[in-house]
Recover the amino acids of this structure.
């Protein structure tokens, strides 16, 4: 018997739908969350947010507290970044999501964001998971770099066990021997998690591939395998991005994809129903 | 500069289409190759082949010389298996593909099969690759368990360098730390190979997942990412299969999927063209 | 040029020696840190500590706040565990080390422990790394499950960049495809880190192998590759341990090994010097 | 119950000792096999062989048929390489080992070599394993890039099942996410195989690390974990080697190590006996 309980379909057969503002994750229509890796300045964020909103993007992402491998890399704008992100979301009329990396920032992040992201490096930061379980905010829980499915689901179990059911899982690629791509996007995990758990699942092909030209093919694949939505890194000038430039889409590419998606959405769901 | 030449789009920008009988791999329509892991007996093979043909399957697979991890496992029917496979293909009116594991079997396999499969364990059996490059038969080259994209493409380069252009690549999952699935189906590799190379690519979600319930979601994903077709293990009674039962589909499940596919095929290709 | 600075031998050619009580890590003699995975009760801890001290163990380990994959597993005794650990160390006359998993526990842990352990799951908990860098306590930094050498050294760099030079690295095995062992103990990393960095390195073959019968052979290997010491899980009755029983040594096995080590220690160092 | 039989200590509790000329592998003294990655020319081979012999090296290695990832890389001298290798061994008074990559070369290789090497890429080339099992020559079986212990032992089982007991296992590193080293030398596997199997085990830290400065520390580690010997790549001018230069030792470094080893050998064995 698997060691997780509350996250499994045995305990709750129906799909959980997580609502963030007017954005439903896990419902009939796949949702797209988009934005830059890091909040860089207010003008860029507001302009980009408005443009994304017009394309049909449903939630705005942007990092304020960035977990960076090197202490010498850009660490994000912190509290200023939170304020800018919230303002951009307000102007564009979209809920916003940002990562919390430290339990001491949680209440501040909750003041500005509508959804909290737990990043890969903190998937087993159990103190943070428990606190996030108590605040009752919707949570996006990214899979750790080398977390097994069981470990990932048990991390979600920590949040649910504290009483917070509003959890969305996010597959963002795992670590492997391949060097051509930044990570291995684990498409098996998308299909498996949708079988095992009632929780919604979002795919992050930006981190999952690390290469701009692969993001959209893998995005399509994730939706075809059953993902409930996508999180995509977008930057108005990827070549000048302060972080994750090589995997960021220019807005024009995303616009074309959003049109493709709006045309295909209903078809996707009905074709899955027939399987 | 990448170390491969003949397999790259720089050397040949247009997609290569590999023809096996009346089956075109790499053309406008995705193809499905299906059959049991191993040829077990003639009656089963002929019945199954006819049933698969009626569903729209375009090529019959079946192992005669099976590379098995243990010397004590069923090793396949050998020459008898080849004969049965050829007969089943003839009755059903489909070309057949089977694996060659030993350079000494090559001429015998060529007598019976229309396409030769190089399995993952032999991806870097360079003597075999060179011989296969010389016989001028269409070849399906599976990716090794832990081969990088570059190693895989260089293995194909060995075949092309001998003068045989009729090579189809097959992504079948790579090895990782996850134990829930048999392998990690590398969806990034599907998208990447289609960018880098003009060769057609087939996805094998049966080995790529190792679990029946994940085969079709991952099959859909592979096509969405740009795969030119699928290779699927099917068995009339998976619970009694002599090998690979847990990942084999019953024919009824495949029939439903084939209908879904025939309805969606044109749409898939046009949606890709717009991206 | 590598992205780390303060941890590298370029910035400091001589070996750093970290002193914890009278225990010198990185000096001429390899040190052994030992104790149970988790503090379970006071009698056991005091008895075991005295026994370990007599064998030549130089520091006592024991988990009070345990990071556990499942929320339903034993989570450690918390503050009571800290108190018991400190008492056992005091009675036996040894400094003690324990893990801190949450930045909010740091000052409490510093009250009881002489050295702070950052576990694998928190190797990139950058807020915690920075705080640990500020408290000025000796730190043992375990390598993350799938951290590259560069990521591990950069995590140490976070601590040094805050002004704390008292950092010891701990190789504890990485994640791979092998299922026979719990992890892959990365012996290459032991040799490489000693080349790249001036920081001391401790090997943890208990987690590195996950199997009792492999712990001592791999411990010998780590010392032969240049490790400055060992951290070993020991339990008076491994079959009844609340966690990590299968990889815990019974005290008798450790006693034999400690004798072997005291006989070989000088020889080891001189043989290394001649290489 | 494990699926292997003949290779396990259950079927044969005592260590197997494989004799090649006057070189005993698996006996009381660890043996060193050394030589260049590839045979390049006769003068170099004869000079190097004589120098290695004087240091205490017991067997000469050198590749004639080289399995190379790219068809455009140097493929070895083939039959000429075999002849040169045999001549160098004859002059120096050492048995020689070389790799066979193709079943059709087996009888030719047996004419020149005293021990046959099966390389990592051919670990599951079952036709080759069976033939090697029938010729009755001593065999060195390298572990595949991503072979589990079970798969490796079952590959050896193929050879023993044909009646050839003269099998030596060779750990040469496995594939992982780390890019600093070429492979992850699996020290756990060294200890585990010596527990599970009666077959001798040789370590190849040249391929296991891929970096010259790590070869000898990892060599020491492998012996400390129980390996019965080492296979080391040596080249008189590593910077000009046609293959594997960065991991080849210059002869002077090996000479120092061989002296260290001859002093420590007896001690190593007796310390193991006490554990």
């Amino acid at each position: 018997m698997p060691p997780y309980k509350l996250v499994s379909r045995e305990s709750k057969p129906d799909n959980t739908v997580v609502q963030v503002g007017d954005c439903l994750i896990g419902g009939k229509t796949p949702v797209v969350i988009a934005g830059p890796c890091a909040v860089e300045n207010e003008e860029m964020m507001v302009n980009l947010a408005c443009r994304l909103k017009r394309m049909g993007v449903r939630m705005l992402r942007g990092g304020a507290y960035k977990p960076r491998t090197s202490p010498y890399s850009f660490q994000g704008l912190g509290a200023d970044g939170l304020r800018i992100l919230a303002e951009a979301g307000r102007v564009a009329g979209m809920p916003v999501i940002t990562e919390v990396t430290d339990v001491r920032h949680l209440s501040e992040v909750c003041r500005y964001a509508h959804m909290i992201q737990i990043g890969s490096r903190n998937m087993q930061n159990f103190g943070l998971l428990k606190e996030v379980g108590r605040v009752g905010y919707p949570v996006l829980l990214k899979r750790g770099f080398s977390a097994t499915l069981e470990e990932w689901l048990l991390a979600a179990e920590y949040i649910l066990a504290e009483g917070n059911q509003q959890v969305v899982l996010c597959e963002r690629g795992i670590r492997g021997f391949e060097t051509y791509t930044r990570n291995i996007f684990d498409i098996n995990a998308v299909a498996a998690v949708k079988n095992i758990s009632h929780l919604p699942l979002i795919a992050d092909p930006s981190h999952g591939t690390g290469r701009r030209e692969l993001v959209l093919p893998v995005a399509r694949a994730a939706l075809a395998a059953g993902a409930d939505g996508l999180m995509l890194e977008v930057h108005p000038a990827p070549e000048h991005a302060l972080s994750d430039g090589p995997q960021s889409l220019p807005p024009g590419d995303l616009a074309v994809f959003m049109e493709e998606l709006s045309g295909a959405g209903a078809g996707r769901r009905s074709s899955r129903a027939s399987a």
Q: What stands out?
A: Residues 8 and 197 of chain A are 4 Å apart (CA to CA).
